[in-house]
Specification:
mainly alpha; 216 residues
């Protein structure tokens, strides 16, 4: 974003950053790619990195943190349901944890479905920085406008989840304060649920099914 501001506001206009002839001294592009300036080269590289990294992140959210994780949770839930003592406190915590992680996996699939188009759209931004869309290739300017529109649309649900996560963190901090103030431990009567356990567990440990899953 900072580089785009330098380009659009023509900051340091007296330097080589905005001089396409400086680029031509290293490589000769055909029209209209020969308009590419050094700062546009740098911008295109960052956009290419965003294209690769964000696309991979979206794919990982859909697969490892989503579909594959749901498959593993289904197998674990089936096993937990078949063992004895299913009404014990530990098994109730396990079932609640599995249900929580299943909801998180479904959410990861949805979020990944929003992140992936953002990453793919960066390819057209990369091409635009090199004036490729101006040449009418890969769909030209209409494809660039479509890519920008897709990015704006899928950002809406992502912003919604960001707000929801912030609200959840605030509520959790409030519950932690209440728990720290009112918690009492009784020898034979301990009320423990998944939320309370997660709040008092500060070891960093989490069950293996809480992590991402690989294809198997």
């Amino acid at each position: 974003n900072a580089l785009c501001c330098i380009k659009d506001l023509e900051l340091y206009s007296e330097t080589f950053l905005h001089d396409p002839s400086y680029t031509k001294s290293y490589y000769h592009f055909h029209e209209p790619l020969d308009k590419t300036t050094p700062i546009e080269i740098v911008i295109s590289l960052t956009q290419l990195y965003a294209f690769v990294s964000v696309s991979l992140a979206g794919y990982e959210l859909i697969t490892s943190a989503g579909v594959y994780k749901l498959r593993r949770l289904t197998r674990i839930a089936g096993y937990i349901g078949s063992v004895s003592g299913s009404n014990s406190v530990s098994n109730k915590l396990i079932r609640n944890s599995i249900a929580y992680e299943a909801d998180a996996a479904i959410r990861s699939v949805f979020i990944g479905s929003c992140v992936l188009p953002i990453g793919i759209s960066f390819f057209w931004l990369f091409a635009n920085s090199l004036h490729i869309t101006e040449a009418g290739w890969i769909g030209g300017l209409p494809a660039l406008i479509l890519a920008l529109s897709v990015m704006e649309i899928v950002l809406v649900p992502l912003l919604y989840y960001m707000i929801k996560d912030a609200e959840a963190s605030i509520r959790k901090s409030q519950r932690m304060k209440i728990l720290a103030k009112n918690i009492t431990i009784k020898a034979n009567s301990v009320s423990l649920d998944l939320e309370t356990y997660c709040l008092i567990n500060d070891s960093g440990w989490e069950p293996f099914w809480a992590g991402n899953a690989s294809f198997s």
